[in-house]
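RECORD TYPE: inverse folding
INPUT: structure tokens
STRUCTURE:
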């Protein structure tokens, strides 16, 4: 049986705290929500080489989880202002943070695409309005 020293225990909790503050714990939670991507994360060398093309019909797991992290971070700091409330409303409506994130991702992706296509800054108000529309429809 493993008997950790006082220093081992303290290092462990300090490490967990540092990871939680850095977002690693949040990333791990979203990875756990997506077992369909676990094979993609199991081999780092293969992951670096693999290309994900939308025409192939496969979702890029790295982009997908990056969007989960982006929305989590946006909600934690409420930026753009109002996104936290919109995602909370959508979460309550869908009874699932995960499902709410997936709908918010559609809005986030649309905002980024329109911004890039038009060559203008992202429209946070349009993004929030899109999430709110999702929250108020069945």
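DESIGNED SEQUENCE:
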């Amino acid at each position: 049986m493993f008997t950790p020293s006082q220093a081992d225990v303290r290092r462990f909790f300090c490490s967990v705290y540092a990871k939680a503050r850095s977002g690693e714990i949040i990333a791990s939670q979203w990875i756990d929500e997506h077992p369909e991507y676990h094979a993609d994360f199991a081999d780092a060398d293969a992951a670096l080489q693999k290309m994900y093309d939308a025409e192939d019909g496969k979702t890029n797991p790295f982009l997908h989880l990056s969007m989960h992290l982006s929305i989590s971070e946006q909600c934690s700091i409420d930026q753009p202002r109002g996104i936290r409330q919109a995602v909370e409303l959508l979460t309550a409506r869908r009874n699932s943070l995960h499902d709410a994130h997936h709908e918010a991702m559609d809005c986030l992706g649309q905002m980024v695409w329109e911004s890039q296509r038009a060559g203008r800054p992202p429209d946070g108000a349009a993004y929030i309005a899109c999430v709110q529309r999702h929250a108020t429809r069945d």
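NOTES: The chain has a mean pLDDT of 91.
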